[in-house]
Model the fold of this input.
Amino acid sequence: MRTALGGLVDRRLARAAGSQWTRVDGRRFHARHVGPEAAAAPPVVCVHGVGVSSRYMVATMTKLASAFEVYAIDLPGFGLTDGPPEVLDVVGLADALAGWIQAAGVGRPALLANSVGCQVAVDCAVRYPDRVSRLVLVGPTTDPIARSALRQVLRWLRNLPGERPGQLPLSVADYADAGVGRALRTFGYALADRIEDKLPLVQAPTLVVRGARDPIVPQAWAEEVTRLLPRGRLAVVAGAPHTVNFAAPGSLAELVGPFLVEDGPT
Amino acid sequence: MVAKFDSATAMLRALAAFLHGRDFPMLGGRAQAEPLAARLLGLVNRLPEGLRERLYIYSGWSEATPAGKLARVRSEALARWVVGHYPRRRYPAVMVGSSNGAMIHLAAALGIPWLPQTLLLPVRQRGVHPDEPADDLAAMVDPARVLLAANPDLALHHMHDANQDRLMIQRMTYFRVKRLRLGRAYERFLADTLVPGGTIFLVECTLSWPTTKVGDRHVFQQGALGGATVQEAHQGSARVAGYLRRYGSHRRRWNPPAPDADRPEAEWGFQPALRTDVERFAADRGYRIRRIIFDQPEELSPLVADLYRDWYRRRGIPVDRLLVESFILLEPWLALATGSVPFWMVFNTEPSLAAIHRYLDTAGSFDEIRLSLFSHGVESVGLPAIGQWRTVLQRAGKVGSFLGVDEQAFPRDFATMARYHRALAQVRNRYPMPRLLSLDELDEFLDRSGERYAVDWK
Done:
């Protein structure tokens, strides 16, 4: 259910990207959509992290929109998408994403994900390889050497000063929509999810993007993610925090654009 | 007395740390202090350029010896200081001779020590303008005479490089001393640690430089190996003039004392008198001598990198990680622990950039390339911009990253000294330390390589 703040934020975001509703397994699924429908490359689907929603993807969507058709979805229970009574784990969220890709008729898109959204995108790419052409993992979680709630929260707190203040109203609206309980339980599922076991099974070409000032994703973990991916490559955005898609959307688009049109089998 | 920031000292310490079974944080500093030092030097990197340069000058000055104390220097004490770094045990071989980063990785692979021929004794001075090499020579003639009179085993190469050492030479003079004889401490170390019939490798870099004879065992060298050529150091060029203008100098070229002959280069070159003495010692004691001869310091780098690749392949380790090291930012222990192929660059200048690109052209692709970049504080002639260094990283298949480099601060990134090791130490997917390479395995590799490298083994 949308809060008053969410309504205000969405009115502003609607100028940049329109809303689209798709029925998946009887549930209304919300996505933002922008860009030319006859783009040369497959569409891009942005996947948000825990607690937040498609709202903080709009900045990156608009930077990519001149060349690509871009969607940003709200996973079930987040943003404007209806949630099931139970909280979905990473596998459940990946199933929902795969269901939406099929129902929305977006072909075999590239997934651009941030934070815990990377775990959902990777799970989706591993179990539904025919529905994902490429991956862009922006600040992929969860670093196994800090697999505890306390250590993750400490890293998250260290990251906060580096983020742009403009993200605050969006995040408040997002957490109000999702509810703190759902956000926390999803975070718990993300902690238990072993992305490192899945990365070697990803067939899609993958670009890993790290903000140079991201304490949640240290350089060594970003390098390890890339090493484990059979077709991975790492790019670092100077000066950027964890949420590169909101804090440095121009730099992110400059990296992602060429990657999406690179030659090679997908 | 001996400079900590110098190539010979850093190489000695890196290798000694390896032989003690340790990595090499902060050029031999305390590992526990590394996080704090990295943070503090990170703050230094944020200071205005002029202030950072002052700090650099004074950090060097603080290590330099007052000229009046040079009379106390004894070559035997220096030699005892060197051998005191190494564990006392039996070695199948020992290296003696030129400083070289690739040689350090070779010695590490074989598990053997190296005794340097050359050490740097920085001497305090003030009032000499960096662009007046003749003044530096004149100011140091007397202290040099005193030093040499007390040390008949040493030759002095007074080196003056206003291009790359512009900051350091504002308050100090570079005295590089080269050992002409083994001397008692080196001989005793060899006798105590070499197995009967063991091998002494003579590391002979034949790099020479036009120098001026000042007196017996005393030469003056204008310029040094790096971004500017020998000709530029002596005759100047448009690049040199532009550089001197940028730094507000009254000169547009240097006016050094006229050179009278080519002699071993001060920092890297091998002074052959030592070979004669090593040959005498080896003949007396029944040791074998093997000479490793090369013209330029970096010529050993592709050979050692390929030796590591071959070694990793035989151990079943993926040969997909390249560690590109700059000058003294060395890590022999972590190179092996991370399964990285080490390629050493003599400095951070255009010829080194070309050398690593040439190696990548022949060696094929690496999934991961990590590169350390020494910062000497000067926008010197022949220094590639940070973007040019990025072209090396862009050749990585998966991960191309600087090791603890503050890209905005280069070449005044003084925090890198406390960060390069940390960045490498955090690399995941490590490998156990291997059994050391045997001399037979080295020979097999050399036999297979044929004439591929510009290194002569005699």
Q: What stands out?
A: The mean pLDDT of chain B is 96.
